[in-house]
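Standup notes, structure subgroup. Blocker cleared on the UFG input:
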Amino acid sequence: MTILVSGGAGYIGSHTVLYLQQQNEDVIVLDNLSKGHRGALCNLKFYEGDLTNTALLDKVFQENKINAIIHFAASSLVGESMEKPLDYYENNVLGTFHLVKKAVEYNVNNIVFSSTAATYGEPKNIPILETDPTIPTNPYGETKLAIEKMLKWSHEAYGLNSICLRYFNAAGADPEGRIGEDHTPETHLIPIVLEAALGQRDGVKIFGDDYPTLDGTCIRDYIHVFDLAQAHYLAVQKLISDGGCDVFNLGNGQGFSVKEVIDTCRKVTQKEIKAEVSPRRGGDPAQLIASAEKAHNKLGWKPQYDSLETIVQHAWNWHSTHEEGYE
Ligand code: UFG
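Run returned:
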């Protein structure tokens, strides 16, 4: 198969690209490198540019016989989206609009979309099911939900097949240590704690310890980035064999508090890591835990690296050997 991966130089994108290459698939990457790293990719055809560049999209679709698209390219920071909602609508909704329009024009009928648990907002039930209400509490989740709906209506009108994958908290790195997570600025908990372990930060701020959870800190469902990569491949295969339009949660179904994550990082790194409680961060739900039963049953997805210690170990292997990231 030939698979076009938009945003393939980013964190989850690059791990998915590597996974697809390991399955001997042909991968083409389109990325504007605003957040991604060219150094995360090798041995593939690369187009640098934006999804709003329709001439570039024409070139990509004309030069390649594409069987499926995996669409990651997006802005993905909850806090930033609260300050710059229009940037999120432009980059996420408008960018996807152009990609989907070209996919329909060139008869590329299969698209796997990178969605998020942020589409649910503050959950009513734990674990969260795909059928639960979607009431996003920030523009980021709102733009991802708008795209899910764009894909649903495009399925009905044009026969465009799609699978939306709602990730919970992506973490970890390539188990073989070839690539990893490198964001600027970093806002995610695990890499921040590992940077503190490396002495690159003074310590870690715990955003609130007065949530209605056992230790008062927020609970998240951490999922290994390579398990996410596997799910994308299964989703492409499902679209090619059965078509359709569907949504799946991707998580481990297990929650860990911020304090538990910090303790696991201390254990893995064998470093003292200072942590202090600071005020809550706006827009953080107390608890997000997935039910991924549907992905297990319908995609045949089985996460391989489901222990938090393994996830942190793989992240640490990369961070401790790439202190400057891809620089
Ligand atoms: N946290 C801290 N200190 C930090 C950083 C984070 O206490 O320095 C806390 C956060 O408040 C939150 C938890 O650690 O309670 C996890 O925070 P992350 O920033 O790592 O992840 P989020 O849960 O905010 O968001 C991530 C993705 C989103 C996605 C969401 C879905 O970044 O894109 O998971 O669960 F929507």
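Discussed briefly. The CA atoms of residues 196 and 223 lie 21 Å apart.
Next: hand off to the docking folks.
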